Amino acid sequence: MTKILVLSDSHGHVTAIKNAVRREKPDVVIFLGDCVPDMLEAAEDFPGLDVRCVRGNCDTSLVAPDRMRTNVGGVEILAVHGHAEGVKLGLLRLALAAEEACCRAAFFGHTHLSYRGAQGGVTLVNPGALCDGSYAVFSADDGVLRELERTR
Predict the structure, then answer these.
(1) N or C: which end of the chain has fewer CB within 10 A?
(2) Handedness of CA 49, 60, 102, 108 (dihedral sign)
(3) CA distances from 4 to 7, 13, 27, 44 (A)
(4) Contact indicator for 69, 101 with CB cutoff of 8 Å
(5) Which pTM was predicted?
(6) Whole-angstrom Cα distance, residue 30 to residue 50?
(7) Contact, 61 vs 38, CB < 8 A?
(8) Are 14 and 38 in contact (CB under 8 A)?
(9) Where in the chain does DSSP place strands (E)?
(10) Which superfamily is assigned to 2-142 in CATH?
């Protein structure tokens, strides 16, 4: 089983990232943008942690791609911030992009609102904004993605 911590929209809250990583002890962190430098700074405290980032609309750095197709535990995941897919207006474009990329799940941020749902056979997840204390935790194993309850 691979434990995944999904974060987005930290907006300067580096300590919140560090606290979430310490609390959840993930194998992989997927950071969905706004602000990638926060994630990179926090990751320095966790050598060897597998961190995968995409940039958001507030990220001016070119250190992360706009979108990423990644495999965790046999699950193909499309990771985006969401602004380019218009997620504030609806999730159809995101679901279609995930299907086109042969992904069974799409993780996105941007709205600052936590969301779990499915469209067209694609699991859609927004962890909410870390700057508001929200994130998501999943396990991936043998191609199956499961949401885990946050430990407190």
Answers:
(1) C
(2) positive
(3) 10, 20, 6, 18
(4) yes
(5) 0.96
(6) 9
(7) no
(8) yes
(9) 2-7, 28-31, 50-53, 67-72, 75-80, 105-107, 114-119, 122-127, 136-141, 144-148
(10) Metallo-dependent phosphatases (3.60.21.10)
| Angle formed at CA 80 by CA 77 and CA 85, multiple of 5 degrees | 115
Q: Which residues of the chain have pLDDT under 70?
A: 150-152
Q: Are 9 and 134 in contact (CB under 8 A)?
A: no
Of the candidates 59, 42, 58, 104, the residue with the CA atom closest to the CA atom of residue 79: 104
Q: H/E element holding 38?
A: helix 36-43
* Domain segments of the chain as ranges: 2-142
Backbone angles phi, psi at 63, to 5 degrees: -75, -10
